[in-house]
Structures are given as C-alpha cells and as structure tokens.
Amino acid sequence: MSEDFSTLVHVSPLMTTERISKALTKWFNEEHTFSHWEYVKEMDKGNAHCSDLLRIRIYGVNLNADLRFVQVVLKRIPKNIARRLTCRSDEFFRNEINFYEKILPELLAFQSKRQPKHPFDNFMKLFFAHSDGKDDVVCIEDASVKEFKNTPRQKGIDTEHYNLTLKTFARFHALSFAMKDQEPEKFEKLLNNIHEVYFDKHLCDWYLGLWNRLSDIAIDAVEKEFPDSVYVQKIREFAVPDRYQDMVEAATRTTETGVICHGDIWTCNFLYKYLDGHPVDIKMIDFQIARFATPVLDVSTIIYNCITHDLRENYYDQMLEIYYDTLANQIRDLGSDPDKLYPWKLFQTEIKKYSYFGLGYSFDSMPFLVLPEEEAIDMEIEGDKAVNLKDVWKIGNIKTKDGRLREANNVKHCVDKGYI
User: Fold this and answer.
1) Per-residue model confidence as pLDDT tens digits over 51-110
2) Angle at the Cα of 242 (from 239 to 248), degrees rounded to 5?
3) Three-class DSSP category at 74
4) E strand or H helix at 53, and its extent?
5) For residue 181, what are the contacts with CB-CB under 8 A and spacing of at least 6?
6) What are phi and psi of 278, to 5 degrees?
7) Tell me: the pLDDT tens digits for 206-228?
8) Residue 297: phi, psi to the nearest 5?
9) Surface-to-core class of residue 292, CB atoms within 10 Å of its CB (0-12 exposed, 13-18 middle, 19+ buried)
10) Which helix (DSSP H) or strand (DSSP E) does residue 273 occupy?
C-alpha cells in the first residue's frame, strides 16, 4: 500500500491537520493550512537510540493559495513498544520538549533584556512538539537547509572546531549563571521542568548492566594499547559498578554551581557551518539529556568525547582558558559578576573534582562513535516488554587500533592529570 502524504497522523497520531496548520501559521506568522508532506532523505541510523528520525518537508498554503514548506528533522518515539520501554523514551522526549517549550524561551527572554554583544543563538527552532507518553514527537528546523552539517563522528574535532564549540557552550552556560543571579525565583521555577534521565540513583538497575559492559570495553582498550602500565591499574580501579554512583553524584548533587547543561555531548549533536573550509558557526541539537549541574560536566565531556588526543595533550590548559574567559565575559555582559558567581579558582577546582564524569560518559559514547555506520546497532526488539539495555546494545570490544586509542588515551589523560 502506498503511503498517504496528505496526512501525518500515521507518522504520529498527535500530528493532526489542525495542529500542523497551527504550527505552520505560527512559523510563517500568517494563517496557513496544512497541505501535504514528503520525505527528503534518510537519516544516519546510528545517531539515535531512543527515537526514530525522519527528515521531511511539511507543506501548507496561505490565504492567497501560496504553497510554502518547512523542512524539519522529525523525531518520534519508537513505534516498537519494547524498544520504547527499554530506552524509557517517553522520559527523554518529555525532557527535551520541556527544554524547548519551557526552559529555552525563558533563557532567551532573559538574554533579550540584557542585549549581550554575542548572544547565544546556537540552536535550531522548534516547529512542533507534542507529548502523551506514547506517541511523542518533536520537529526541529532542519539545519542542513542553512548549510550546517556534522563532522565525521569517527574523528575528533580540530582546533577551529573546539574553539567554536567551547565558546558556544560558555555562552549557553552563562545564561544560567546570570539569570540565577538576577532572577533567582524565576530561574528556580524553570528547574521544575528538567529532570535527570541518565544518571540518577533510581536508574541504577536500568543502566548498571550496560555500564559494566562499557567498562569492560574501556578496560580492554587500555590493556591492549598500554599493557602492563599504570593506566591498566587505574582503569581497573575506575571502571567498576560502584562508579555509577559517582556519576550520579556529579549529575544530581552539583546544584550550587549548577547551570542548564546540554548533557548529550558527542559530535553527532554539533552541526557546523563552513566558509572557505573553516567552521564559522555551530548549532546544538538533541537536548533529551539536558540537566541542571555544574558546567564542568559538559566541558569535560566535550574534552573526552570530541577532541583528539594530540590537541588535548598540547592545548588542554588553553581549552580551559578559552571556555572560562568566554564564560566570564558573557556573564559580565549579561550584567553579573563572574568573580562572585563562578571564579576561575572554583572552575579549576571543579575540573579536578568532576572531570571523571567526562571520562565515564565517554565510555557510553566512544564505542558508538568509532563504530562504522554499516555496523550500527539494530534497535528493533521483539515483544512488548522492556529488556535489559545490555541485551540490546550488544556491542563488542573496539576492533580498530585507532578506535581503541581514542578510548585508551582518554584514560591516559585523566590519569596523568590526577583526575582518577
């Protein structure tokens, strides 16, 4: 049977003609009626585990019968019930929808009143979102229309990319510091809309089996690349089941210096725009793991998940300075005092205390980052009940030397710095 492109309800029952017409009207700032939709191209199947991704165009006509379209990346809760339950997809969707509909607008409203010289605008606009826990859907403006694209996920980012990325995250985090300082009650209310969906004490049973498998992969990489070394000893001490509680500690008990963090830091979630081969702009996508915690969680995860070992070895201190200088300047430009809110020495202290989080999170991401696209995990699960994550993400030890070195060098850096 051919697909019906005159309606989107079979894509998600929540995408009724009435709702999509309202979304088009809001988008174009004039009345539109939904007309039809079409596929654009396939999405990389290795980039999403808790959702199904489609790239589509949604068409509408205005009162003059002019046909216009919005091109979006549509993220929907998996139709496969067992996958949806196993991944707890409804919680991730609710967190992201709350970020786009309730948190980001308030941060931007605060920013617009302060008029900083370099505002944070490194996100794609929300076109449509709806949640009922069963058919949740999020439609974000497709960044490729504006010539943004991913870097290859199998490689780390270079100097130009990390400069741009760290500065962007600093401006994003600065909004929380300044709003928390100047509008504390309003900011406190925002936090009711964000919840830890990955590292929380009540999720231990859900995640621990997978954590143990990912830890074994990290140990294997270090044993093969740095045999009979202190790094083997240290990774065996670090990559243990109880370490999950330390990840929980960092994610849920660092509220004193807390900001709204992106949470899901890997290169798939950064899109760059280029001019003459050089990155000049960046957009963040995928806020499903957005959390309230110290900004060091985002910073350390960028450093261990995204940046190459050679650059980290040679420019690590410079990276921290780039981030902090941009953060301090942006906080100041927003009307607050960074020396009172988050002084350099406190940032350094938290880097030493919590950088293990970035290493731990890299265990989760690195095996997938170095995995060839054709070997992406099949997330379709039989039945209608949740299964153990480790039985779905059946990923083996990293096969390539380059891939193992990315994992092992993360451990080496953490050990050399005294973080673990």
Assistant:
1) 789 999 999 999 999 999 999 999 999 888 888 898 999 999 999 999 999 999 999 999
2) 100
3) strand
4) strand 52-62
5) 336, 341
6) -110, 135
7) 999 999 999 999 999 999 999 99
8) -65, -45
9) buried
10) strand 270-275
Cα distances (Å, whole numbers) of residue 95 to 103, 129, 131: 10, 12, 10
Token pair in block for residue 122? 């490194």
Please write down the HEC assignment for all residues of 336-360: CCHHHHCCHHHHHHHHHHHHHHHHH
For residues 330 and 116, the answer to whether their CB atoms sit within 8 Å is yes
pTM of the model: 0.95
Longest dimension (CA), the chain: 74
Q: Which of 175, 108, 157, 171 is nearest to 272 (CA)?
A: 157
Q: Are 345 and 339 in contact (CB under 8 A)?
A: no
Tokens 């092992």 correspond to what residue?
A: 408
CB atoms within 10 A of CB 82: 18
State the amino acid at position 153 in one-letter form: R
* Position 147 confidence tier, pLDDT thresholds 50, 70, 90: very high
Q: Contact, 357 vs 263, CB < 8 A?
A: no
